[in-house]
Amino acid sequence: MENLFTKSFCRSVDAKGRLLLPPEYREVLARDSAAGSFVLTGRDGYLVGYRIGQWREIEAALLKIVNPSPNLNIFLAKFLGRAEELAPDAQGRVRISQPLLREAGLTRDVQLVGMLRTFQIWDQARFDAMQAGDISAELAAQGISVPF
Hints:
The chain is α+β, with helices and mostly antiparallel strands and 148 residues long. Helix content is 35%, strand content 26%. It has a 6-stranded antiparallel β-sheet with strand order 1-7-8-4-3-5. A two-stranded antiparallel sheet has the order 2-6. It is globular and about 45 Å long.
């Protein structure tokens, strides 16, 4: 079975932009890269962490785009332009750049959310304020039945 990011964790970003990754996430990353490296980029007001192998697949797919629309070009500029490869230090911390901190509105308290193949980093207040509507029809359209 594939190594997956699961669970959520509350963490703090320090004044230098460092974030302590949960041991569970570091274990998944270490199985993909000896240094535990991953790619972090912004997406719709939060950050997304991708395993290195997965990021290379995304790059290969994006290389196939010819003549992107202005809207797609803006997305690519931000998605690719802000992407950075990170590796945890000896204490398990990564330093998030100022552009990515601004992109996600991260100040201090953050929520890390395992999304199976990726993980997300949200500003804690923004994450707490989110409300999902009824998603049962969308799940059914994907052929997924989740008992609640």
